[in-house]
Automatic annotation (TrEMBL):
Pathway the protein takes part in: Polyol metabolism; glycerol degradation via glycerol kinase pathway; glycerone phosphate from sn-glycerol 3-phosphate (aerobic route): step 1/1
Protein name: Aerobic glycerol-3-phosphate dehydrogenase
Protein family according to the UniProt entry: Belongs to the FAD-dependent glycerol-3-phosphate dehydrogenase family.
Domain FAD dependent oxidoreductase: 7-368
EC supergroup of this enzyme: oxidoreductase
Organism name: Lysinibacillus pinottii
Matches recorded under SUPFAM superfamilies: FAD-linked reductases, C-terminal domain, FAD/NAD(P)-binding domain
Amino acid sequence: MKNSHHDIVIIGGGIIGGAIAYYCAKAGLDITVLEKNELASGTSSRCDGNILAIDKDPGFDSQMSLVSQRLVHELNRELDMSFEYRNPGSILVCESELEMEAAQQWVNRQQEAGLDFTMLDREDLRNESKYFADDLYGGLECKTDSTVNPYMLTFSMFHSAEKLGAKIKKHTEVKNIKKQPDDTFSLETNEGWITANKVINACGIWAPFIGQMLSVDIPIKPRKGHILVASRQEPVGLRKVMEFGYLISKFGGERKVDADIEKYGVALVFEPTEAQNFLIGSSREFVGFDTKVNHDVAKMIARRAVRFYPKIADMSIIRTYAGLRPWTEDHLPIICEVEEVPGFYIAAGHEGDGISLAAVTGKLIQELLQHKDSCIPTEPVHLSRFQKGVLHE
Ligand SMILES: Cc1cc2nc3c(=O)[nH]c(=O)nc-3n(C[C@H](O)[C@H](O)[C@H](O)COP(=O)(O)OP(=O)(O)OC[C@H]3O[C@@H](n4cnc5c(N)ncnc54)[C@H](O)[C@@H]3O)c2cc1C
């Protein structure tokens, strides 16, 4: 690898790097991936696996998610390795009359935008799961939502990319990058120097460090989240459930909950896996790069889950983990070529939506590299929105 020249280098072997590698290799591009640890060793193995439109703002945000949902549906047929894909839809549940009114408005806005959303009443919830608390008012459903095993999808995309000719270098850390007078890039790694025509920064929460190497400011911060894994006992539910307050927590609004629940941004997220274990989340905090499990937060998540599913109180938790979402101020990713450094691309900052948006991100980067029409508008995800102060609302 030392002193070798490459056409396109992707830095980062998470789900975003995987999707870019797959779509670019499929389009015939010459791809080399550099990953400092193992594939999917970052946030992409410390998360849930939901591919959602239910929690997306109607408009650009939800349209981008729908494009990605369609692409993942196709990936399920295209890729060799299966990744536990299912698309049973998902639901949000409400615990007050006020939330039901807000849910109705959310459904109206989504339906106006052409999405498949419907309201659910108490009876619908009872039919959904006998484990739900009796006092829940109802909720809403998005029928297109799907779920995957996130690290299996990551491995699956890299596996197919490699078969299509992509070269994947694990345990290869990029330590510095320099732009050369001939417009190529020179990259210093623990395996020596290499050169490349184009460089794609798919480093999630570490993307700002790669940006600094080329004097590009990338405004991404790690936002911690915890997940509890409960063991397979009885099928508590067959699809993804979130409390309506999750939307408020995600977008930074005020909720009527205990101060601690609010402080750690705890809101119920319930996800059955293919093996019928279930994942219970989650929390949202800015505490730097610390991925240690905070047992007080884990207890709060369990308490919140029992509020919505009282009968799971006796079930066993088999593991708890925490991951760091790559957060941006307007909750949209950064996917673009950097104007000031031609040939340098960013694909990072997907916060809690990187699994949902990996496919559309990979496709878009391939289209940008090949100067093709893009599958989504590019302006809302351009880095320059932060410099111009025109953030998506
Ligand atoms: C608790 C939790 C729940 C979540 N649930 C969902 C969900 O249900 N649905 C959803 O859509 N999203 C979810 N997410 C968000 C999702 O996990 C992330 O958005 C996504 O994994 C980000 O992927 P990535 O490839 O950008 O980053 P990563 O997976 O972190 O990959 C970046 C890679 O870059 C490598 N790297 C960094 N620096 C260098 C370097 N200098 N040289 C070489 N390699 C380098 C790292 O080792 C890492 O492997 C959740 C996140 C959390 C924390």
